[in-house]
Amino acid sequence: MKRMRFHVLGMPHTKTIDWWGTCAYTQKVLKLCSMLHSLGHEVFHYGTQGSQVECTKHITVMSSKKHKANFGDDWKKNHTFDIVDKYHTEWYTRAAKAIDENLEVQDFILCMWGLGHQGVLDRIPNVQGKALIVEPGIGYGIESQIDKKLYRTFRVFESYSWYSYCLGREEPLTMGCFTTVPTYDVVIPNYWNPEDFIYSDKKEDYYLFFGRCSEEKGTFVAAEVCKHANVKLVVAGQTQKGAEPLKNYKNIEFVGFVSNEKRAELMSKAKAVFTASQFHEPFGGVAVEAQMCGTPVISSDWGVFNETVLHGKTGYRCRTLDQYLYAVNNVDKLKPEIIRSWAESNFSTKRIAPMYHEYFSMLHSLWDKGWYDIREDLNGEWLAKSYPSDITFISRKDLHDKLMSFQNFISTGEDFPYNYYLNIMSALKTQNGPINLWTVKDYESEYYQLLKNKINVIDVKEHPIYKIFYQEIINAPILEGASKHDIAVCIFDYLSWGIRAREGGSWSGLGSLCLEDRTDLIEEDKDCIIGKCPPEWKENFFSPCGSIWKPNSLTARTIFNIIQEKIKQPASEYEWGCLGINAFNEGIKNNMDNIKVLPHGVLSAHHDDANHLFDEVDSLYPKARVLPLYTTAYNKINKIPLSKLITPEWIEKTDSLYTNTIKKLLTKEEINGKI
């Protein structure tokens, strides 16, 4: 990946710090520095002393003492935007000097404040001969942008709506067409860290307005709608001049300015958040913030909202009172997990970082062949959006019926044991349509031979994931010296999850019965995975963490990273699975909230973790496509896989949920392999 250098200007009147969440400019500076730095680029931040930024180097432009002398102790309230006053002039001079000392040819200078940062450019000698000047995240008008007559700038707009609006204002129409459309002015949406928000699918009995209390922001629209709907409206934010009449509404609770933490709590519990802006909203970040919490948005139907609110999926866009009332009465039909998935998949820093990298790589090629440059690090999918599917996320009580329709099974092991046969036979009895079995080879097992003419056998090597990755990964220099077998197992593990996630599939592979939710076994006997089985087994059996994919497996981590890099999309955009409670916890820690499969082997040595996991099963089940594997236990004394101990004789004499279900579904002849 091409490594580039960025000089990022902070806001003169604030400190670049995470808790100052009400300043969109400050937050964009903070997060863009972090994104670029995480991609391996050199990032220099220029700002006020006390800024806390993830970057290569922070350069203090103005001391805290001078900042305080100019704005007082409460700079959050008393700051000014006078770009020609003494303070700003000194800030520009100091910043220009610092940048000039660090600037190298082909660097970038990022001016997040547009015209407010032009004073820095004016003081850097031959700045355009050394650097490319970019205005990222434009949500302001053409009057506030850097003067294009003085500087050749490259602009990133927050929405296509705002880009078109600005272009229409600055470019006169000739013969009904714009004279020019700048090739290197692009649209990249605003971005958030999902971990800053609380996801909740349980809502309380109120609606929320968050932001400046003013007519143009739609506070009065929200108040009128909630009055007519006879519902409670919580208003959080700064009250501006003209908002006094809001106090006459008896159904409004005012909570004033709130912290980032309180914002997340209010948004996560609200039935819906109003963003009924009465002007051409450039972006309206509150709409995305609400959706990060899994909360529907009720917005106006103009400006950016066509790009951020999916009507009928993540919220409703409205124009008239009756449409707003319809939205209030129907938001409870929208699914929080889909709302959160839409926001995280399209507006998280993890998603937007590759977009910015592609854009800056594209710009950097202007130092070479420009438009004709064929780049090795091209990301042709940089503009792709991830839309929620129409999959119905099922509740625990509906899970059994849903599992019946799955038609794909995975077998990537070295053998095809008896319990695999039992599970496919069960599926043949209960599922509609053909049964697909993905395998790595033509097994010699008598049970496989009995089934192969009754099902569709598919060579897993024909799967696209295998074709794309296997030959390259197994020979990757970074894996030199690693066990070829371990590499193959990791890839096949990934393959099996890919097939399950994309094709549908048995709920836990062939190692477990394919149609029953047996989580009750945890309560029935926490140390025994079979149920009412012989007492002596309780001392000798345990369930391991599953296959080789574990957080501490260097081979698995390396392969997973290679696959992610090749796919060129954040892991949260595709459905993934993990084998073991450790891997599951690792996924949660890395903000992969939309896991569509629950872990294999949760009945491992980590009993406390497993029990805790299933205490929260109601919040996890709506996201589940696959349930835990119970029958891959091992005999600790003899190291004999449990699958080897499952025999026709054992099925006949054992009284457990597993065996009783088998005996209910299959005849004695079928249990004995006589079909």
Strand order of the largest sheet: 3-2-1-4-5-6-9
Strand content: 5-15%
For the largest beta-sheet, the strand count, sense and barrel status come to: 7 strands, parallel
Please, what is the average pLDDT?
75
* Secondary structure category: alpha/beta
Count of DSSP E strands?
20
Number of domains: 3
Bin the helical content: 25-40%
Distance between the termini: 57 Å
Please compute the radius of gyration using only Cα atoms.
Answer: 29 Å
How many helices? The count is 29
Shape: globular
List low-confidence stretches.
390-406, 500-553, 566-641
Break the fold down into its secondary structure elements and pairings.
Elements: E1 5-9, H1 24-38, E2 42-48, E3 57-62, H2 64-71, H3 75-78, H4 86-102, E4 107-111, H5 118-121, H6 127-130, E5 131-138, E6 153-157, H7 160-170, E7 173-174, E8 177-178, E9 186-187, E10 207-210, H8 219-229, E11 233-236, E12 252-256, H9 260-269, E13 273-275, H10 285-292, E14 297-300, H11 305-308, E15 315-318, H12 321-330, H13 336-347, H14 349-364, H15 399-404, E16 408-411, H16 418-430, E17 436-439, H17 446-451, E18 456-459, H18 464-474, H19 484-503, H20 520-524, H21 537-540, E19 541-542, H22 554-567, H23 581-589, H24 607-615, H25 617-620, E20 634-635, H26 642-645, H27 648-653, H28 657-665, H29 668-671
Parallel strand pairs: 1-2, 1-4, 2-3, 4-5, 5-6, 6-9, 10-11, 10-13, 11-12, 13-14, 14-15, 16-17, 17-18
Antiparallel strand pairs: 7-8, 19-20
Helix pairs in contact: 1-14, 8-12, 10-13, 13-14, 18-19, 19-22
